[in-house]
Amino acid sequence: MQLEPLEVNLFRGVSRDIGTKRVFGGQVLAQALLAASFTVEDRLAHSLHAYFLRAGDPDAPIVYNVDRSRDGRSFSARRVVAIQHGRPIFTLAASFQVEEEGLEHQFGIPEVPAPEQLSTSALLPRAEFDHMPKNMQRWLDRFGPFEFRPVRGADPDDRLPQPPYKELWFKLHGQLEDDPRLHRALLAYVSDFHLVGTATLPHGISWVQGNLMIASLDHAMWFHRDFRLDDWLLYSCDSPSTSGGRGLARGMIHDRRGRLVASTAQEGVIRLRQQSD
Q1: What is the pLDDT of residues 33-52, one digit of tens each?
Q2: What pLDDT is stored for residue 156 in this prediction?
Q3: Which of 18, 34, 134, 216 meets the CB 3.0–4.6 Å disulfide criterion with 185?
Q4: Is the pLDDT of residue 32 over 70?
């Protein structure tokens, strides 16, 4: 999450090796939001809308070009283009707002077990996990950057059709400094986990099987209230529709006090490759 300032409105970030040939989309999303946040004073992001254009190269740095679209009395708008090898791989539009009081209401937190009542489960069956490259094992292991405690719908080895709903608790390992810009960027990062995969649940398919292609097309996020990412948050996801080779998923993120802190939406490509005999 550390970005190197290159020039006014220009930043450079590096990628974490997760054992794949492409950059994790949540990382680009988080770095772009952080780059935009560095060009805004006394305002925090309240919404973002992003598109994934090309797969990122994990072996090359990513340059983030921030356009200061507008600074008003209450809101600021920024547009970010992420560039690799001279081509845009990602675009983000974000809006920032000064803190103010207003009307309040929210959806309540679902009735689920507390995180202390659940166990940390692996993201993969042990047999498949052991055959993966070591760097990917580090990425998927429960001692990675985030800890997940699923309630339902998050077992990649469960191939039975299920309702299109998923809940899981998550938090960052360790303590995080009191910078709300960093907390929001990292929440954007982790929100890319598990979201569009919710659209596969009614079909009894999983991203760990070899014939499934799943890739994010876009990502939208709204930040409602302050939060801490080093305490437990509940991610509640649903998928209203899958059609035309695409799946739509939505998510709500509550803190353990029941406050709705953020909402998400994402559409992704979901295709089953034809396997030859």
Answers
A1: 999 999 999 999 999 999 99
A2: 66
A3: 34
A4: yes
Instruction: Give pLDDT tens digits for 145-176.
Output: 888 999 987 776 667 899 999 999 999 988 89
CB 93 within 8 A of CB 51: no
pLDDT of residue 20: 73
pLDDT tops 50 at residue 143:
no
Please state, in angstroms and rounded to a whole number, the distance separating the CA atoms of residues 4 and 8. 11
| Inter-residue contact 169 to 115 (CB < 8 Å) | yes
Longest CA span, the chain? 64
Residue at 214: amino acid letter:
I
Among residues 31, 216, 236, 263, the one annotated as catalytic is 216
Asked if the model's pLDDT at residue 190 lies above 60, the reply is yes
Is 216 tagged catalytic? yes
Mean pLDDT, rounded, for 193-221: 87
Q: How many CB atoms lie within 10 A of CB 91?
A: 16
Question: Known catalytic residue: 27?
Answer: no
Is this model's pTM higher than 0.85 or not?
yes
Of 84, 192, 238, 263, which is the active-site residue? 192
Instruction: Please name the residue that has the structure tokens 């507390």.
Output: 114
